[in-house]
Amino acid sequence: MNSRPDTVPKLLRHIVSTMHPLDAPFLMHKKDEQWVDITYGETIDTADAISSYLLDIGIKKGDRIGFILENSPEYIFYDQALQQIGGVNVSIYPTLTENEIEYILNDAQVRTLLVGNPFLLKKILKIANNCPELIRIIPIFEDYQKHIQSSYVNAGTISLASVISEGERCLPEHRKAIESARESILPTDLSSLIYTSGTTGIPKGVMLTHQNFIENVRASLEQIPVVDKRDIFLSFLPLSHVFERTATYHVCLWGGCKIAFAQSLDLLAKNMAEVRPTIMNCVPRLLERIHDKAIKTGTQDGGAKAKIFLWALDVGKKYREVAESGQKPGLLLSAQKTLADKLVFNKIKAKTGGRLKFFDSGGAALPKNVGEFFGNLGIKVLEGYGLTETSPIVAITEHHRQIFGTVGRVIPRIEIAIQDVESKELLTVQTHNSFNEKFECEEGEILVRGHCVMKGYWNKPEETEQVIDQDGWFHTGDIGRFYRGNLKITDRIKNMLVNAYGKNIYPTPVENTYLKSPKIEQIFLIGDKREFITAIIVPPKETLQEVFGLREEFFARPEIFIDDREIREWLTADIQRLSNELAKFERIKNFIIKRKPFSIEDGELTPSMKAKRKIIEKKYSEPVDKMYLSGDDWN
């Protein structure tokens, strides 16, 4: 790029002045069962009309503007509209409860709220009158009025189509004001409030500036300079989460890439085959499901087909390891790899559309064996690490150099330190430029300093001081170390279990070991101040149905836990086998089987799918205590 944009609203105009004409496609979505393109010109015109409307109703720079909807072109239109007049994006997870939504709307003093569907509108109507600053509710669908006939709300309601129409009418009056507002926005101005509750406590509004977003994208793309204007991203992670906002939306704004919006998680596989994306941001769980399904499909029939599949995986592993060592694979191994591609790997790749440059995995740790599996197939998975408070990326895998089980190299122009948890001594401070592929250090808390660190928590100066110290270090609460120059995450400090003998146990790596079993979909480790480790385990529903012939009625039973000897023995076989990979004090000695998965709706997971440890332990304390009373199950 010649001149670098320094705020989010300048990015879109920069693309059409340097990379793409106005009539080039920017967004893509499914409409009436057909994929439809939306051009850069249409996006700019729609955003200008919405900006005009917002100015007309008195919205000004710094006002907080709310979103509660699934990913869609409307999200981009509305965000571009408010960003260019200095508005602040307050995106709310659609899965939050009414009480949580009400708290966020009032804490941020949200002025207008974009609502995505009738279900979400009903949620908002129940709490709208408890939110005195809310002046407009804007459903993106036209027949919204039939849903509010029996409700009286103080805020005005108007469809997004009517907002655009009204805005177009008064655009000549406001055009100069829009342009002036866009040019007057400073990099240090607030761009977004993203509320994060973590695993405990009241939601906190993370204040992210235009500079936070712009510099984070710029640094990340310097680290992986393989993204270009021909790329197509398939977006399915929520734009209300900072990962998808930065790593898809803002990356595409910077690089001139195209964004296709998946219809839903259920239709993701179908959408991948249709769109044929070149890049996808995802969470480890998606990759785990692809891994489990591929293994199952390749081996379930046994015989020659299974032998060929396992042979291909072995060839892929050998080929990957040779390539990673910096050597050139020999003629025989290269020929075997070509055959493995033809017989097995290309068929799996075709399910992703066949054009994928890489998956970018974030939000949680990717199990090492899953990363290696995709590497064996020849599908690149880049891992990244960060938090909402760091915009989010602080480390990401380099495209040409990968150490499985790590989250990559420090991005440019920031610092990452490892601090001893007890002594508070800084064990090391690493930067992008200090990278040494032989460097290793002891583990401790991960600290971050630089352009990616948030401005602070909205209306919470004391909480801000607790996490950003006087030297500017943001304390992540995560435990990690550097391994071969790359950052490796162990777990959260708050997750750490200390058993009755004083042994420290980080649940995540232990849980990831057991998640290698295709019989386990979710696992929650227990053992703080206890003599041994136990777990709550959720087996995959489909697998239980296939293996034991179970019907839907079984999963609809009111009993929370499954008490079945055969299912227990079936799980025990894998637990005992995988326990051999762990230290004795880390091994599961007893477990209970949960009928339904842990969920956001039941208050057990955060919107970013992290377990709410204290809530789960309290909620299931009685069956857990009974499990400990029954003793060590097999020792």
Automatic annotation (TrEMBL):
Keywords: Coiled coil, Fatty acid metabolism, Ligase, Lipid metabolism. The keyword rRNA-binding does not apply. Residues 568-595 form a coiled coil. Residues 20-458 form the AMP-dependent synthetase/ligase domain. It holds the Pfam family AMP-binding. This is AMP-dependent synthetase/ligase. It comes from Paradesertivirga mongoliensis.
